[in-house]
Design goal:
The structure is a homodimer. By secondary structure, chain A is of the alpha/beta class. In chain A, 42% of the residues lie in helices and 24% in strands. Chain A has three domains: 4-84, Winged helix-like DNA-binding domain superfamily/Winged helix DNA-binding domain (Arc Repressor Mutant, subunit A, Orthogonal Bundle); 89-166 and 259-286, Periplasmic binding protein-like II (D-Maltodextrin-Binding Protein, domain 2, 3-Layer(aba) Sandwich); 169-255, D-Maltodextrin-Binding Protein, domain 2. In chain A, the strands form three sheets. In chain A, strands 4-3-5-10-6-9 form a six-stranded mixed β-sheet. The first copy, chain A, has a two-stranded antiparallel sheet with strand order 1-2. In chain A, strands 7-8 form a two-stranded parallel sheet. Chain A binds a DNA duplex through helix 3.
DNA sequence: GTCGAGCATAAGGTGAGCTTAATCTCGAAC
DNA sequence: GTTCGAGATTAAGCTCACCTTATGCTCGAC
């Protein structure tokens, strides 16, 4: 019988590309991962990996098996979720990931509702950029996460995660009437690698220019303070712009950001996940949207 | 992560009812099965079994998990079948089960076609009554089996097996124009526990009487010889009645028997299974139907 | 009451799977 | 060309999961 643990490693390899990265993700040594994948190949009776230069790549058979692995792991997730539901109401640790703005604005009221309704639940929150959420969910470091996606950024589709939409908010630009009007300005953006950074770059490119990025700042309060001090222009979402400094003028753009709850595919009926998403929804009316 | 091996044991327990029977089916000791199921309960965090008198029964949670186990094992089966397909054409050992008549009439030409088309295939045939096929498939003792079902016998539905119909044949009665006309006769039937025996009893009951069973004989040639010797009446399928003894008159009844190929759910795309079923089909025109 | 079937627990041996350490290869920097 | 580091594999050893044997317990049949 195929071993789901090995299938999990193969799936991680498909996503991460190197055995070393897989090993780090599951906190094994690369040696262990290599041995497990060799064993899987032996059982499969087909070459699944092939060395390409300094790293390994999946053969077509490997990719085929990854798809089946996904289906198997999803069913196992479903089974676990069903057991959790049978055990009773939501309880135990629940690892929640959230992008910084959500952690500041949405989570405090949501967690209050959540722990109020389910005293046995122990939510544990980590700030995390949406770009890293899929990997963290797969690795079991998170159970549910708040992520966002932008018009300009194709949603990161990962076969192993599923999402439920929560709300949509508009984007604002500081001190300029449109992105195109900020062609010559210095820009304040989030750190490279974050979804917000990618979005801002794409928005400028869509307006026909490459932005001149001067500052890399993740915290939107700081971003606005910089803008107020005349250090550049920035794109900020509604939630981050509730109390802007006096000196900053905000223009609403025809650009929106969607916030969603993400979780491992198959785990959507887990009572703790359901309770968390319900709590997120109860917190929405309290948001300054 | 839930262990499919343990889930398999739980599923077997649901079908067989006792830990001892499961142990025998998987050739473990009862102790090992007991330990594995205890471990599964611990991981599940719910009672799955409860002692009822001298044996154990599944709790509602246990039954729920069995359904999920079925889905998981099916996906694993699918993955294995996909790997077998990727490995290339059908090859290796293929365990075939067949009821006696099929083994005598259908298998010889079918196996000739099969091994002719796929020299790497090593078919291994075991005679087996259709009533025992599901268990043998689940246990991995068989990969594909020829089974039959009768009008009077509800098909044995097992969530873990799947079937494809092959052909239908009529039933014949010896020396009497109808089952009802054989009310007072001595009957020659198959051994109790076989599907044919159950069918014959039901057919008599449907005609309004309990048959007087005198002989229990599985081989239809012998059955017909007994009938020819005036030792009783019998129901025989078309395939078993191609060259009846002179002294026996056969009457075709409005009663039919369907022959099907059975295999583990999820394994239907396994190349060896597909090749076997294809070979069964090529052999059908050679049958004296 | 006695006996056997069925299950659970204790104790022990074996193998799967992890770690560490060493080796090999590739690619980039100089 | 040489060096170096990243990535992968292999060897050797250790731990733990898991199966077996042995034993005991409980229930139901006779």
């Amino acid at each position: 019988m195929l071993d789901p643990r090995k299938l999990h490693l193969l799936r991680e390899l498909a996503r991460r590309g190197t055995i070393a990265a897989v090993a780090e993700a599951v906190t094994f040594t690369p040696s262990a991962v290599s041995q497990q994948l060799s064993a899987l190949e032996r059982e499969a009776g087909v070459r699944l990996l092939e060395r390409t230069g300094r790293t390994v790549a999946l053969t077509p058979a490997g990719h085929l098996l990854v798809e089946h692995a996904q289906a198997v792991l999803e069913q196992l997730e479903r089974a676990s979720a069903a057991l959790a539901a049978v055990r009773g109401g939501p309880s135990g640790p629940l690892r929640i990931g959230a992008f910084p703005t959500a952690a500041r604005v949405l989570l405090p009221p949501a967690l209050a509702t959540l722990t109020g309704a389910h005293p046995g639940l122990e939510p544990m929150v980590s700030e995390i950029d949406p770009a890293d959420v899929s990997a963290a969910l797969r690795a079991g470091e998170l159970d549910v996460a708040l992520v966002h996606e932008y018009d300009f950024v194709p949603p990161v589709t990962d076969a192993s995660t599923e999402t439920e939409p929560l709300f949509t908010e508009p984007m604002y630009l500081t001190d300029r009437p449109s992105v195109a009007a900020a062609r010559a300005d210095a820009w304040i953006m989030n750190k490279p690698g974050t979804l917000c950074h990618t979005m801002a770059i794409r928005a400028c490119q869509a307006a026909g220019f490459e932005p001149l990025v001067r500052h890399h700042i993740d915290d939107f309060d700081t971003v606005l303070a910089f803008a107020a001090a005349g250090q550049g222009v920035a794109l900020v979402p509604r939630l981050a712009a509730v109390n802007p400094p006096r000196a900053v003028r905000l223009t609403r753009l025809p650009l929106s950001r969607r916030t969603l709850a993400a979780f491992r595919r198959g785990n959507g009926e887990h009572p703790a996940i359901r309770a968390a998403i319900a709590a997120f929804h109860t917190a929405l009316p309290h948001l300054p949207l």
